[in-house]
Amino acid sequence: MKKLFVIFFALIVVFSFAKTKLTFWGFMMNDEHAKMILNKFMEENPDIEVEYVQLSWANGFDKIVTAIAGGESLDVVELGNTWVANFAERNALENMDLFFNQYGKNYVGWDTVKYHGKYWAVPWLLGTRALFYNMELFEKAGLNPDIPPETWEDLYRAAEKIDALGDEIYGFGMPAGESYSPWQQWFLPAVWGTGGDIISEDGKRALLTSCKVKETAQFYKALSKYSLKTKQADLAKAFGEGKIGMYVSGAWDIDYLETNYPETPFNVVFIPKPASWYGTHASFAGAEVLAIMKHSKNKEAAQKLVKFLIRPDIAMEVAMIWPAIFPSHVEAGKDPWFNDHPMHKVFYEQNTYAKPVPSIPAWPKVQAVLTEAIEKMILENTDIDSTLFEYNLKIQKILDGE
Fold first, then answer.
1. Most buried residue, 105, 110, 113, 207, by CB count within 10 Å?
2. Residue ranges of the domains in the chain?
3. What is the pTM of this model?
């Protein structure tokens, strides 16, 4: 009898100290950073153990798809916001409406995780784009570096004057020759700045032939005359070397430029809007979002991890690992860190005008077609109307599921 009691007591002890094991797949943190952050979580939640798997942007999407298809047990996954609709459509994500109801007023970026009127993830870290400009080139061109461009016309005139400085100097840097940057850095945000879009709100109609898209295309093509057109990384390098007056990029280029080109004087401002009386300073809304997988067997523990990661102090600690993204909490901008990093503060505030891509599962196909259309106009100098008409048909076929 005593032996049975000992065995029974031992089983109780083992059961009492059994830990819930969570899997967390992410992109932003490497193993060292994840250990530092997640150890804090496990100290606060000694009954939960978290296994972190670092993904890469090159193949992370495919790995998640493969894991889902193979029935692999996933709990919390960091997603790029442009993927949310795709995974929600696959019925792979847990609905997060309750999170929105509880935390919605304290966080921004919820429109990046919304699909068919419901929320499928929680905005964690936000990233956007702003305008970099070379202050020395502004002065050489007779421009006041303390009065940067606020409108499309301001930017066009500045680009024209800077471009006239010499054969090796370009007024503007325009991304081309790669998958995302041609539409992401400014063309599509410029469309949004006019109040337009390339797809209807219900996701059923292509709008490339609309007046506001044509207006943007005409401006963009005219600006391309004074632009260096190449890959985004090459634009950053050329800007650092003093060969470009302005370009649009993310906050990651602040550190890149200060480290590699410390003699180049530059500043960062909001992306120009169409006119002083019209439009907004729209930019692309990139976001790292946290999703709980539909088939997670540890949803209560997963919710605790998500709540921990979105806390302003924790999110800021993660953001400082790579200061190109910033916490989604509404008061994150009050962090003292921003006092010493005013250019980063511009990006944080630019998020106010940032907009996500249309929330449709077919977006990866649409963006490829949009990139091709933009490059046709700025690299091959094709007719705007005929190009937009041709690619509008291509996008419409994608939306129709053909």
1. 113
2. 17-128+285-355, 130-284+362-399
3. 0.86
Does this chain's domain 17-128+285-355 share its CATH topology with 130-284+362-399?
yes
Mean of the per-residue pLDDT values of the chain? 92
Q: Which CATH number fits domain 130-284+362-399: 3.40.190.10, 3.40.50.10490, 3.30.530.20, 3.30.70.100?
A: 3.40.190.10
CB contact at 8 A, 259 and 252:
no
- Spell out the residues 6+ positions from residue 155 whose beta carbon is closer than 8 angstroms to its own: 131, 149, 172, 223, 246, 272
| Strand-strand pairing, 76-80 and 286-292 | antiparallel
pLDDT tens sequence across 306-346: 999 999 999 999 988 877 888 999 888 888 999 999 999 99
Cα separation, 242 vs 234, in Å, equals: 12
Residue 246 has a pLDDT of: 98
Q: How far apart are CA 126 and CA 104, in angstroms?
A: 15
Asked if pLDDT for residue 204 goes beyond 90, the answer is yes
Contact 123, 289 (CB under 8 A): yes
Homologous superfamily, domain 17-128+285-355: Periplasmic binding protein-like II (3.40.190.10)
* 328 touches 104 (CB < 8 A): no
Give the residues across from 38 on adjacent strands. none
Contacts of 143 (CB under 8 A, 6+ apart): 158, 161, 162
Q: What is the DSSP letter of 43?
A: H
Which structure tokens are listed for 7? 């065995």
* SS3 (DSSP) at 210: coil
Q: Quick one: tokens of 288?
A: 């790292």
Question: Which segments within 109-233 are labelled E, that is strand?
Answer: 114-115, 118-119, 122-127, 130-134, 170-175, 227-230
What does the alpha-carbon distance between residue 319 and residue 124 come to, in Å, rounded to a whole number? Answer: 10
